[in-house]
Amino acid sequence: MRFLIVLLAIAGIVDSALALRIHYQDPSAAPPCAVTEKFDCGAVNHSRFAVFPPTSFDEDASSKKVHIPVATLGIIGYLLIGILALANRPWLTLQATEIGFACAAFLSYLEAFIIEKWCIYCLWSQIIVTAILLCTLIWIFLNRRRQQALVSP
Questions:
Q1: Rounded CA separation 131/93 (Å)
Q2: What is the pLDDT of residues 135-151, one digit of tens each?
Q3: How far apart are alpha carbons 46 and 48 in whole angstroms?
Q4: How far from chain centre, in Å, is Cα 102?
Q5: Domain 2-55+68-151 CATH class label
Q6: Domain boundaries, the chain
Q7: Cα–Cα dist 81/75, whole Å
Q8: CA–CA dist 101, 142 (Å, integer)
């Protein structure tokens, strides 16, 4: 199960890297994922919520604040999940995945109700982190059953 989690984490890294590419793309260029007026990765990845911490409305380009693209945080999170799964640390993998799931759910909330546009890469990331969460829960459940089978005669 842990190798499936690692494969899903690699898929998440690729997905986040594609979103990061859109983030650094010229905003005037049409991104390849601008499908409809509701599905526009460019609008989402160039919004004020595409960086952490979000930019304020009155912040100018000369500001000295450091803003990290959310897609970069996604790459780091998926990398951490993959490393923890490879290291056979199911409980730490679960904790990292829960944090990732909560962040992805919050970003989906922002897309649905604040930005009112959806990013295909963000939706795929939500699906991937949900799959990792389910796999991690199954992994822990199977480990617990295996330990109970070894203990009971």
A1: 13
A2: 999 999 999 999 888 88
A3: 7
A4: 9
A5: mainly alpha
A6: 2-55+68-151
A7: 10
A8: 21
How is the chain classified by DSSP, letter by letter? -HHHHHHHHHHHHHHHHHHHHHHHS-TTSPPTTB-SSSBBHHHHHTSGGGEESPPPTT--TT-----EEHHHHHHHHHHHHHHHHHTT-HHHHHHHHHHHHHHHHHHHHIIIIII--B-HHHHHHHHHHHHHHHHHHHHHHHHHHHHHHHH--
Ramachandran angles phi, psi of 38, nearest 5°? -95, -25
Angle CA 138–140–144, to nearest 5:
115
Q: How far is CA 79 from the centre of its chain?
A: 11
What span, in angstroms and rounded, lies between the C-alpha atoms of 119 and 127?
Answer: 13
Torsion sign over Cα 32, 68, 117, 60: negative
Length of the chain: 153
pLDDT tens digits along 82-112: 999 999 999 999 999 999 999 999 999 999 9
Residues contacting 54, CB < 8 A, separation 6+: 48
Average pLDDT over residues 36-55: 86
Dihedral (C-alpha) 28, 114, 53, 133: value to the nearest 10 degrees? -110
